[in-house]
Amino acid sequence: MAKSKAALYMTMIALAGMLAGCGSNSANTSGTSASGHEGHEQSSPAAAPEAAESGAHNGHGSDEKAGSNNGHGGHGDVDGMEHEQANADVLWSFQSGQPAAGAEEAIELNVTDDAGAPIEKFDLNHEKLMHLIAVSSDLNYFSHIHPNYESGGKFTVKETFPAAGTYKLFADFIPTGAAQQTMSTEVEVTGQAAAKVELKADQELVKTVEGQQVKLALSTTKAGEEAKLTYTFEDAATGEPVTDLEPYLGAVGHVVIISGDLAKYLHVHPLDEAAKGPDAVFATEFPEPGVYKIWGQFQRGGKTFIVPFVVNIQA
Ligand SMILES: [Cu+2]
């Protein structure tokens, strides 16, 4: 990339960051992606509970930190307010300067330490070095993708934002020897906006997705308590329990939870990663009262599917 272009790039990122900070529009759901684990789906990853308080980290430097409590790793903090270890920083670059709705955008993430030196080594976490979740500000659009590691702390990935508006992107990764990090940014996408979808708690936590009837039970709907999320699957046509769920990124399912104000991000892995159904159980803790959207991402018959639910968490 030529120098002048790089400069323009950075300017645009800063601009995008500023725009993102002051408004929120909506975007649409892209629907379920048929392709394995990459792509846009209306759902998400899962894992041991890693709660993250997502700060904001824009191209111009405001920092967003997400504490993380990685269930297998055992480090990170639940409330995400502080983390001592491994303060990573991510510089986000959008190749076009400002993404346009419907156009494929190349995204570059450069991971550095606090001093600005590249972080070059990362641990695999559920088969990937980095997980990236992009959501529209109304949480109607959800995309779970996996940036490729180039070298020198640089990751690249392509994403097509479906409609205009503000999007929030969360990258989670584990610098070798450090706690899991979640960094985020906001970006304003130009073009045709979609109708904003109201985020409203589901009356009933049951949905039929791609032939499976999926129920979600929460052991508590109170903030600050350990909440077990139990998904139960049955064949929608026959009513038979589903016992042949397949591993997706090394576990029976992946769950991502984001608060309605986009401030809290939790990436939760199953308690028993080898489960095959009819139950898949996850444990986490909702840090604060409010509305949360929960995307469960599962695989059966070689096909991944995403099950979204919206819940209300009380004080
Ligand atoms: Cu992922």
Structural class: mainly beta
Q: Over all CA atoms, what is the radius of gyration?
A: 18 Å
Q: In the CATH hierarchy, what is the class of the largest domain?
A: Mainly Beta
Number of helices: 1
List the domain count as a whole number: 2
Query: How much of the sequence is in beta strands?
Result: 35-45%
Q: What quaternary form is this?
A: single chain
Largest sheet: 6 strands, antiparallel
- CATH fold assignment of the largest domain: Immunoglobulin-like
CATH-derived architecture of the largest domain = Sandwich
Mean pLDDT: 80
SSE diagram, text form:
Blueprint: H1 3-21, E1 50-53, E2 88-94, E3 104-113, E4 122-123, E5 130-136, E6 142-145, E7 148-149, E8 154-160, E9 165-175, E10 181-189, E11 206-209, E12 212-218, E13 226-235, E14 245-246, E15 253-259, E16 264-268, E17 279-285, E18 290-300, E19 303-313
Antiparallel strand pairs: 1-16, 2-3, 3-8, 4-9, 5-6, 5-9, 7-8, 9-10, 11-12, 12-13, 13-17, 14-18, 15-16, 15-18, 18-19
This protein binds copper (II) ion.
The site of copper (II) ion has 6 residues, from loops.
